[in-house]
């Protein structure tokens, strides 16, 4: 169930009601260290606009997100890193406020572990999907 803005932990961090290790802040964006990091330098970048899923956030509230993630990646000194953004419980979203993880991957065991169970390509199905999505885009 989506958290209301009043109950949202990230909104409380934005308001200053909950302390955080802020790395960057502007009118639209807040970046801070993750308190349960997967690796040293694991940080979160959030829009200040509350919304549970990416599609809930107005485009103008997202304009600084990737530039800030990019700056965090550079500042961390990480050669390898993951940028992760989940939407919904079965997609592994824990906090119902859009957030982007920048997770340094210093070695094989630290950082994000990812499984990628790729399926076989069905070009007829892919062509139909392409047509359907393009028509809705």
Automatic annotation (TrEMBL):
- Entry-linked CDD domains: HINT_subgroup
Keyword list (alphabetical) reads: Hydrolase, Magnesium, Nucleotide-binding
Q: Which residues form the active site?
A: 99 (tele-amp-histidine intermediate)
Cofactor(s) annotated in UniProt: Mg(2+)
Catalytic reaction annotation: adenosine 5'-phosphoramidate + H2O = NH4(+) + AMP
Extract the InterPro entries matched here. Answer: HINT, Histidine_triad_CS, Histidine_triad_HIT, HIT-like, HIT-like_sf
* Domain HIT per the UniProt entry, residue ranges: 9-112
Keyword presence, Cell membrane: no
Q: Name one GO biological process term.
A: nucleotide metabolic process
Protein name as annotated = Adenosine 5'-monophosphoramidase HNT1
């Amino acid at each position: 169930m989506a958290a209301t803005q009043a109950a949202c932990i990230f909104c409380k961090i934005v308001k200053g009601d909950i302390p955080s290790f802020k790395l960057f802040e502007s009118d639209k964006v807040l970046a801070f260290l993750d308190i349960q990091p997967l690796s040293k330098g694991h940080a979160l970048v959030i829009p200040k606009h509350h919304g549970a899923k990416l599609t809930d956030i107005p485009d103008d509230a997202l304009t600084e997100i990737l530039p800030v993630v990019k700056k965090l990646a550079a500042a961390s000194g990480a050669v390898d890193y993951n940028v992760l953004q989940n939407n919904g419980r079965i997609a592994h979203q824990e906090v119902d406020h859009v957030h982007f993880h920048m997770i340094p991957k210093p070695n094989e065991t630290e950082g994000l572990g990812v499984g990628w169970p790729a399926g076989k390509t069905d070009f007829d199905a892919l062509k139909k999907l392409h047509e359907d999505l393009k028509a809705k885009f």
